[in-house]
Amino acid sequence: MSEWGPGNPHPLSKMSTELVWEGKYDEYGNRRQVDTAGCAMPMQRIETIDQPRSEAAARGKQDLLAFEKETTRVDDFRNRLIWGDNKLVMASLLAEFKGKIDLIYIDPPFDVGADFTMDVPIGDENESVGKDQSTLEMVAYRDMWGKGTDSYLHMMFERLALMRQLLSDQGSIFIHVGSEVASCVRMCADDCFGRDNFRNEIVLPGRATKNLQQQFESIARLQIRHDILLWYSNRSSTRFCPFWVVKHDAGNPEGHWHHFWSTADRPTMRYELFGVTPQSGQWVWREERALKAVDNHKRFLSEGGGRTLAQYWRDTGCCLEFIRPSPEDGKPQYWREPAETRLADTMWSGVPIYSADNDYPTEKNEKFLTEVLRLASDEGQLVADFFCGSGTTGTVAERLGRRWIMADLGRFAIHTSRKRLIELQRKLHEEGKAYRAFDVYNLGRYERQWWQKDRLKGADEEHRRVVLEFFKAEVLTNTPSPLIHGRKSGAYCHVDGIDSIFSRAEAKAVAEAVAQAGGKQCYVLAWEFEMDLRLTAAALEKELGVKLMLIQIPREIMEKNRKNPPPFLEMAVLEAEPVYRKKGKETSVDIKIANFVPSLAEVPSSELQALKERAIKSGTDFIDFWAVDFEWEPGKPFNHHWQDYRTRKDRSLKTVSDARYAYQKTGKHTACVKVIDTFGCDTSITVGVAI
Ligand SMILES: C[S@@+](CC[C@H](N)C(=O)[O-])C[C@H]1O[C@@H](n2cnc3c(N)ncnc32)[C@H](O)[C@@H]1O
Predict the structure, then answer these.
(1) Does any ligand 1 atom lie closer than 6 A to the CB of residue 390?
(2) What was the pLDDT predicted at 386?
(3) Which of 277, 621, 647, 653 has the fewest CB within 10 Å, making it most exposed?
């Protein structure tokens, strides 16, 4: 091997100060780039959600017209909730959104010892069941930590590089990390955004995580009680709205510091964070004090001379008390100006970081996200979160009038976000406030094709082999029919193509091939099934004496470091029927859920037996959300005309819709029912309606 020297410099000698991880450079010393073009794929819009509008439409033309007249629309932008790996999602968004996103907040998983098992509620009472680690969150988690910090950093760098391309010139990104990975992520982000564009490292005091506590129990180390928020901008100039913090309760040396916004363009905002006293949550003042507040307010209005409240404080040094009407009942509420004020700094101790009561273990507090969004974005701007979890960023963006895009690869995360944003749409509409519609997208078969190309490097045969191996079935080389690919405990196996939907015609062909080969049973393993296939399978069993067992291929097999097979379970059973209501000459329609048996794909094996019995006896206990599209058309996104769901507070669920849908035309129609169970898995069927 040649000596290193001037003519043959050591590769490390060419490096600037930088963090190097395995995978950053290729074997020739070239920096690896993200294959943006290779990852970009068409996204499929699978659902459209404008709950208040659809509800009005369901009641008939008149109501819809009235709705359109009365409802203020901010603009026609439709927000997006995207299900898929964010690397593919971001690469796919570039064509439309390159340089267009104004603020990105991300909160990637960072807990090395993360345990994804969580409790999800079932039924009407306060019962819950364990949800296993088998969701795609685990794919990301293992991909990320497969080779320890190296794979984590490589994953982060690729994502940050894509985010930078999506950010607008004045845009900002906030990266929420645990203190144990903060130093590495900061260097990785320096690398991506440039050290000059680093703005702040913000300390977020919070709770100590259980895992860390356990992990460090035997180590001489302090418990960690804070997270880190890294703020970078895309260029050296960025939007920045400085804010103040105030200390309430001067008598108490600890006090309560609250963030305070003082933008001259939005005068009402300055009160929002002071709406209540922190201890009691109430405004409780004596009358004379309240009256003084009124005087003070008047004084500020007459002497303020267009200054913001903060400028007025600074100039006059005076301490004021103010009055404002309560947003709830219009009665006066009073706000005492705090004893101390200072410009906000990087210690956000007055802001709750984690949400107290929620369905999603890592959910962040809306107040915290409000601070982030106000700090570096304006109304109407586009905000994104590509690790959205329960959808906090989108919820806050919607409240603050920002447009949003969110993505997550967890099915449960998409379900939680969808539900939360529908509820917010309803609420904003009830309050007469403007809201935007949103659509749900996925990458569908394109994601699988990418997996086949990138990971399996093979054709359909390789895909079938991997599926059968995970299913613990024998791969048949000498098969009686090209439609039969394997065998397991006396039954044949058919594996559907990676990019097709298993159809009724295919079901018939497979059943005939099995019958001809003398078989009685066949497992049909497919990524997607055509709607209502269970009915076809039952008919084929009668006709040909062949039982087709419809098994969904779990997406978990796409996991990079996966060795153990994930559960392969039969599709859920869902049956529904129309309910006709007559009033005079008019007939309105609703849908009744007649039967539901969940697939229990995500239940830990320890709980499986007990839950199987319960699922057969009272399957509707496992329904978390269901929706009806009364005018369903094949190939079109599902339109949420009506839906009902359980919340933490209200566990009840209707099993008959109360939309009273008025069809405009007589004749035959098709409704589609979509049920999402407690584990976030969805099942849909069509229901024929005759008017
Ligand atoms: C810490 S949680 C986010 C919590 C969120 N801030 C909230 O308030 O609910 C991280 C999320 O990142 C998602 N995730 C991890 N890797 C991902 C990837 N490669 N693509 C998309 N989402 C991913 C996980 O499914 C998880 O929901």
Answers:
(1) yes
(2) 97
(3) 647
